[in-house]
Automatic annotation (TrEMBL):
UniProt keywords, alphabetically: Methyltransferase, Transferase
Recorded GO MF terms: methyltransferase activity
Entry-linked InterPro entries: Methyltransf_25 (IPR041698), SAM-dependent_MTases_sf (IPR029063)
Signal peptide positions (record): none
Superkingdom field: Archaea
Biological process terms in GO annotation: methylation
Entry-linked Pfam families: Methyltransf_25 (PF13649)
Organism, as annotated: Halogeometricum borinquense
Annotated SUPFAM superfamilies: S-adenosyl-L-methionine-dependent methyltransferases
Name of the protein: Methyltransferase domain-containing protein
Methyltransferase domain ranges (all copies): 48-142
C-alpha cells in the first residue's frame, strides 16, 4: 500500500508533461511568474532557491534577474517533474541553473540570498512553519516571495469559485480530499492565508499583489533583523 507522499510523486510524475504545458501556457501565468520574480527584488549575482520548482517554469524569469553571474537552484521531491526541468536546463544551456531532489520543508541547501515558492503553500501541512524555515535559510536581509492560488473574494466573480473548485479537484492526486475535514478549496485558502501572513510577520517592506481576477496572490519582502541581531550590533 502506498502512502500519500508516494501517491503524490507518482501522480505528478505521470502527468509531468501535461503539468508543464499548464504551468507555461495557462492564460495570465506569464504575468504571474514575472510578478513573483519581481517581488524578490533580485540583483545580478544573487543565489535564489525555488522551493517546489516543478518543471522549471520559473527558471527563465529568475535567471534573467540574477544574470549569468548568479545562481538558480530548484528543489522538488518528484522525479518526473525534475526530469522535465533538467531537460529544460540542458536545452537552454543554462550553466548556472541547477535542480536537486529534496523536501521544501527541509531544504537540501545551506544558504541563499532569496527563496521563492509558487503554488506550493497549499500542498504543505504547515506552510507557516515552512516560511519560517525559508526565512532562516536566507537570513536577515534575505528575500522571500510567494505566489499562490485560492478562491477569489471579489463578489461579482464569486460564481467562478465553482469552476476553481472543479479545477482543484481535477489537478489533485487521487484520494487527496478523502480524509479532509474541510473541502479542498477551503483548506487551500487556509494554507494560503497562513503562509502569506507568516511572510508578513517575518519580513518588512512587503509587497502584495492580487492577480488573475483575484484567484492569485503574490507577496514578497525582506527578512527582518531579529532582536538578538540588533542587540549584538548595538553591543559591538
Amino acid at each position: 500500500m502506498t502512502d500519500g507522499v508516494t501517491t503524490t510523486q507518482e501522480f505528478y510524475t505521470r502527468y509531468a508533461a501535461v503539468y508543464d504545458l499548464i504551468a507555461r501556457w495557462t492564460p495570465g501565468v506569464h504575468g504571474l511568474r514575472r510578478a513573483v520574480a519581481d517581488a524578490l527584488a533580485l540583483t545580478p549575482g544573487d543565489t535564489v532557491v525555488e522551493m517546489g520548482c516543478g518543471t522549471g517554469a520559473n527558471f527563465a524569469y529568475l535567471r534573467d534577474r540574477v544574470g549569468s553571474e548568479g545562481t538558480v537552484v530548484g528543489v522538488d521531491f518528484t522525479p518526473g517533474v525534475l526530469a522535465v526541468a533538467r531537460d529544460r536546463i540542458r536545452k537552454k544551456e543554462w550553466e548556472n541553473v541547477h535542480v536537486v531532489r529534496g523536501d521544501a520543508t527541509r531544504p537540501p541547501v545551506a544558504a541563499a540570498d532569496a527563496v521563492v515558492a509558487t503554488f506550493v503553500s497549499g500542498m504543505l501541512s504547515d506552510p507557516a512553519a515552512a516560511v519560517r524555515t525559508w526565512a532562516e535559510l536566507v537570513g536577515s536581509g534575505g528575500r522571500l516571495a510567494l505566489a499562490d492560488l485560492g478562491r477569489t473574494t471579489r463578489t461579482p466573480l464569486g460564481p467562478l469559485n465553482w469552476v476553481f473548485r472543479a479545477l482543484v479537484r481535477a489537478s489533485s492526486p487521487p484520494g487527496t480530499g478523502d480524509q479532509l475535514q474541510v473541502p479542498p478549496t477551503v483548506l487551500l485558502d487556509q494554507r494560503l492565508v497562513a503562509s502569506h501572513r507568516e511572510l508578513e510577520a517575518v519580513c518588512e517592506d512587503v509587497r502584495r499583489e492580487t492577480r488573475a481576477l483575484g484567484f492569485a496572490r503574490v507577496s514578497g519582502g525582506r527578512v527582518q533583523r531579529t532582536t538578538d541581531e540588533d542587540n549584538r550590533q548595538s553591543f559591538y
